[in-house]
Each structure stands twice: as structure tokens, then as C-alpha cells.
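Consider the following assembly input.
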Amino acid sequence: MAAAFFLPFWKIMLEAPQYPEGLEMQIWLYKITGDVEKINGLNHYIGMKLIHEDEFPEFKIMPWVLAMLILFGIVVAITRKRALLLAWLGSLLLAAGIAFCDFYQWLYDYGHNLDPHAAIKVPGMSYQPPLFGYKQLLNFLAGSFPDSGGYFVIVAAVGILGVVVYEQFFTKKHL
Amino acid sequence: MKTVRLILLSLLVASMAAGTLSSCKPKKVGSVMAGDAASKVYVAPGKYDDFYLFTSGGFSGQLGVYGLPSGRLFRNIPVFSQDAQSGWGYSEETKPMFNTSHGFVPWDDSHHPELSKTNGEDDGRWIFINGNNTPRIARIDLSTFRTVDIIELPNAGGNHASPFCTENTEYVVGNSRFSIPMEGKGDVPITTFKENFKGAATFVKVDKESGNMSVAFQIIVPGFNYDLAHAGKGVSRDWMFFSTYNSEQAHNLLEVNASQNDKDFVMAINWKKAEEMIAQGKGKKIPASFMHNTYSEKTHSATSTEMKEVTVLYAEEVPEIIYYIPCPKSPHGCDVSPDGKYIVASGKLAATIPVFSFEKLLKAIEDKSYEGNVGGVNVLKYDAVLAGEVPQTGLGPLHTEFDDKGFAYTSFFVSSEIVKWDLEKRVVVDRAPTYYSIGHLCVPGGDTRKPSGKYVIALNKITKDRYLPTGPELTQSAQLFDISGDKMQLLLDFPTIGEPHYAQAIPAEKIVKNSKKFFKIEENTNPFVAKSEAEAKVTRTGKRVDVYMTMIRSHINPDNIEGIKVGDEVYFHITNLEQDWDIPHGFAVKGANTSELLIMPGETQTLKWLPIKVGMFPYYCTDFCSALHQEMQGYARVSPAGSATPLIFSGGATAVAEEVKK
């Protein structure tokens, strides 16, 4: 899970007929990299707010949260207490839930709060990128998926969850 | 235990990965490549293409000539830009073609080629093209593929809605993309746009026999951006339609300010009635300063005439001949169906295509179905003129052309595709992606009464990875599609010179039969012609030296000249004495501050040379003409100013030098 500090967590990809090379934006725990400037350049036509790292207080908080979760995890591994393990899993799921809700809020905000003086106005159209998966927005196919760092965290969490569930329900308890 | 855990884990990862990677990624519409595409576009060695394709050079200012279906480039005809290869704009005879009321302008931005038409069909006599920057229209003679006529348009800025000709090429129009105040009244604050800036719809008369252009009249219209135009045909032949945007009348940040209104306009003008009004003397003559330059293929020289006035009608004074039809969101293309019954306008920020009916237009005018008045022009009700809208077409429609089966083809810039739709039923029947971001398209005869049903050519704005890269600056790309079947099939991808904004194509036989092979020497009336080697000579008048020179395989006459002095103005008048096919000669002299000249058989062209150094100056033939081409050379001796070197010359068999005292 520590890998999430060194690898991007999530990515948003954009494909369009006139962009055979594709556009991509990587979201890390503490920054945004990729074709952000190109994407901002395109977004101004539809009146979408420009994406700037300093707009997101999350980038200051998330590294600490993950650091604490990892520490907590190590403590659980050392103490081997079932109750702590369950608490750890619970807080992991809670953190994930909050993160996704927050992400959704941002996506909604950017997609709906458009500049009324934008050059291109398609009546009734909003440009909220998908939370997960693909979505067609005008001539762009937007894709939202975990990136390598994200995969490590998710796989680790799901793996441990799977083991716990397995042990809970599928093994004979030795008294 | 461990293995089970491992399996569980891997299953989880695998399913997640699979889920993410494939999770219903919407399939892109791929292009349908014809299986036998290669054979359909291959023109075997020695064989000819079926069509000529004329493409505008855009920022190159020239006119490209290609063959279809091979996509091979035959020529880059110089029109508005100086061409060092041929000497166009460098020779004394061609320099006047670049004269304008702003002086010598050696470049322009050529956007739209328009073939001359008779009975609404391309006739292969001439092709017209516009200069967008310093408003001008040029006419190219298609028997010699030479620019022979350039006329400047007064009172205009940005000649974009140009040139578009009426059904029998009675007129060719231009209109202002950048509205400006009338001539002489331009020194006003830019913020007074709404009060002072106007558009000028110019009607250039084309002489039926000679093709000679003249500004017949202008209609001064409200200050919007007039984008494109097309003449009516058949039932609508007396009308001209212009698309306009910036009905907001913004003068700054048009990207935002000209995109606010839900609807802009299509302007309909009854040019036939306007012509009658002018004949009845209703037009007003106002002062204007503009140039008209014509090139004669007999004298092989250009003549510049300064025009001092223009006849105008003011839109607000002739409401019975001008109407605005509301049209969604910054329309670009304004295209008339082959039978003249429908006008298709494409709003480049809209997602549907409105189709207007000419019959409904006339009725709306008769019923006075107005929804308002702008700048003295009545605005008709949208629904009173609309035949219907084509739904769910694509994003960013720009331009429409037609085929011979009742279908229309519209280019979509933002979604980068061509959409084929049924004109009567107004439904989409096919889509083809273009690579990338198509601007305009061209169906041979696609804007005439009898379009061909064979091809559509996409002219694209973005190239990116389509061809081998050539650094940051790339060629523009074009695609050739077969439209003879129900679905469009991609045949060929070919690069184009400059940036073709539009193109026109015509069956080859309409031009081939008229194409001249050489100029007849006996018809040459250039004042400096030398019709035989006996007429070759050098004369001096004060500081001016005229060299009457002949070139014929494989020698130049005279090839030895002495007595030129520093500070002289030397004119080399070269006549190519050949009277055969494809034997041009070229001419260049060391250190001349001008380009070479290419002289066709029977032609005379002049290179002006101002020697500033004393010495020996070789000159030679630059176009490989014969086995002894390398031997086609001469020497000019330049002596110091005020020296007493006698003027002597010799060439050919005349070894004896003639002494001309000065």
C-alpha cells in the first residue's frame, strides 16, 4: 500500500477522433500530472473550470490518511488481534467511501457549474466525467479508472478482506 | 490453505482487471476501407485521371491542381503570392498583378475556388478564387492555367464569402468577413462597431465572352461577419444566399462574444432585382479607390487600372430585395440543393442542420411573416421558412455538398466526420470518420445542378500521425471516398499543399480539350518582343539599357554584352522562340535581386537588373531544355559608372559586334 505514495492513484483518460494520441490526467495522493494544461485548454470552450492542483485541499489530507492506515495496519499485524483487524478493515472501507463520495462531488461540480458565457453551449448538456468506467461527452470518450498506485491499494485491501471473509465463513473454527 | 488464498486473490485481481479494461468501452465508428481501394485509385503509367481537382492554397495564396482518383499533384498555380519558380510577381510583366490601393501586396490568403458555370453546370472556362486579406477576386484561365484577372473589392474587410457565382456566371460575389466602416470613414473608435461598421456585398460582373471582371455594384449591409455564400439554381436562380455570424456585433473576444446568440442569420438577396434597380439608376455612385489588374496572353503583360468610384445600394433603402432568415448558432456553410429548392445552413456550434425551403421563403416574404427588423432588413420567422431540421447529426457542422441521388454530405469539424443524409426525408443514412477534423468537403459538381455521384473529398485541418512526420510543421491531409454505393468507402489518403479551405472538381475532358500547348509567336504583341534572332539587340536610352533577347535550343542571343555600367537599369526582355510542346526556357543572371524567369514557347518576359558591382556576370538557361542545355549561357560585362566602354553585343551566327555610341 505504500506504493501509493510513489505511483499515481487514479487516472482520467480522454479520447476523441482528432486526438489519436489520447489525453490522460493522473491523480496522485498529493498532486495531478499528465495533460492537464491541454485538457484545460479544451475545457474552456464549454466553460468548465480550469483544473489546478491548489484548488484541492484533499491533496494535503490524503497522504496523512493513508500513512495512518498503513501504520494502523502494521500495528494490527503485530498484535494479531481479530478485533483490531476488523476495525482496520472498517476504517479502510470508510476512508474509501469518503474518498469516492468526495471525488464524485468534485466531478459533479466541474461538470455542472459551467461558465454561462462559454462559446459552446449545448442545451441541457453537462460534462460530469464518470466516477468509474466510460462515458461519452460530446466528441470525447472519457474514462475514469484506478492507476497503478490505486490498483495496489485496492488489491491489497480486497485481498485482505477476502481472506478475512474466507476465514470467517469457510473454515472450521479451532477452539 | 495458502494455495486457496492465492487463487482467491488472483481471481479477484483478474476479475477487477478484466472488468476495468473491457467495461463496455463504446465502440468507435471505424472507417470502411474499400477492399479493392488500391485498384480504384491506381492510375497506370501513361493513363490519365478522370477529374481535375482544384484546391485552394489557403495561407499559401495559390491554387493546387490534382488528379482524381490518384491524388497526384500536377501544378501549384501562383495566384496571390509571388512565385520564385516561375517569376510570377517578379517579372516586369507580372508585377502589376499584385497592385492594390495599398500598394504592391505580394501575398494573400486564398480560400474558395469556384469554377465558372453555364446553366448551373461547370463549364471549364475559368476558375475564380478569393483573396481574404486584401479583398480581391482572381480569375484563372483554364486553357493556360494562368491568373489573368485580379480585381480589388472596395469597402470590404476579410473577403471570405467569396467567390461564388450565379448560375450562368453573370456575377461573382464577395462579402465582408470583417465588417469595417465605409472607405474614408474608418478613423473611428473600435467601440463604435454597432454604429459605424458595415458589410459590403459586392457583385462583380463577368463578361460572357472575355471573362473580364468589373465591380458592377455593392449592397451595403449591416455590420456582421459574412461567412460563406451560394447562388440559387433553377427556381432560386435569381437569389444569392449568405451565411452570417456575429449577429451580436461584437468587436472583441469574438470567441465568446460572437457565440452568445441562439440564432444568427442567412441573408437572402434577390440579385436580379438589384441589377434592375441599378439599371434604373437607383444606385448611388460614391468615391472608392481600388485596383483592377488584367493580364493579356497576347501582350504577355499586365495592365493596372485604378478605379475611382463604385455604385452602391444601401440595404435599409431596398428592403424588398434583402431578407434575414434566422439560423442556429454561428452558421458557416450556406449550400443550395441541385434543384435549387432547399438551402442548407450549418451552425458550427449547433447539433442539428436546418434545411430552408425556397418556396416557403417566397411565401413568407409575400405574407410578410416577419419577426423583427435588423439594420433596416426584415427578419423572417424561422418556422415560416424552415422545411425541417436534420436531427442527431454530429458536432460542429460546417459545409454541405450534394450527389446525384438526393443525398447531402455534411462535414463535421468537432466530431471529425462526414455525415450522409437524405435531403427529402432529412434522416442520417451513413457516417464516415475523417482524419482529422474535416473543414470543407468537395463532391465533383457538388454545388451545381448536376453533381457527380462518384466521389467526395474531405479536406482536413489536423494531420497529426496520418503521414510520416516532418517536424512540427505538417502537411494538410485529404481523404477520397467512393460514394457510388449506399455506404461511403474510404479509398485514398493524400497530403495537400497549403491549406485547402475548399476545392472544386470537374471531369477532365471539359478542360483537356481547351488546354493550350504553346503561345503562337506571330500573335505576340509584347512591346519588347524579338520575333526572330535577327531582332535580338541591345539599346541604351540614358541610364536605361534594353536587351531584346531570344532563347531557342540551345543558345541565347545575344550571349556576349559589354558596355553596361554600374547604376544602369537593365531590362532583359526574353522571347522564347520555340513553337513546340513543353520546351520552356528559364533565365537568371548572377546577383540579380529578383527570381528567375520561366518563359513558355512564344512568350516574352522581362527581368529587371540593377548592377551595383563592376565585373563579369554570367547568365544562363535554368530550365533543362535540350541535350546542350548546359551550353546555353552568356556573359554581361559591367564597367564602372561613367566609363567609356562601348555598348556592344553579339550572339548566334553574327560574330560581328555592333557598336552603339552613347
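The mean pLDDT of chain A is 86. Ask yourself how this observation constrains the way the partners meet.
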